[in-house]
Design goal:
- This protein has three helices and no strands.
- It is mainly α.
- It has a domain at about 30-80.
Amino acid sequence: MSTIATQRITVALPKTLLTQLDAIVPARERSQFITRAIEEQLAILSQVEVVDETAGIWKDEDYPYLRDEAAMNEWLSQLRSGWQRPIG
């Protein structure tokens, strides 16, 4: 079993949050729970950062077939028509 290096830190939590944590998460599972929560939040922040960095890259005029639902349906119909195999 591989061991991941860890380091203890001091974190101040609001008492109400700590009370909820104590009520739901067993004492020996708190570090793992908090680690997972931080990992999830960091993943979300990373995704938001990518969205912010790429905002504006998509130009509507480059994709007229996606301008509205009718245009998308027409484009998909044309695309899928090439997938049809003759029966028989």
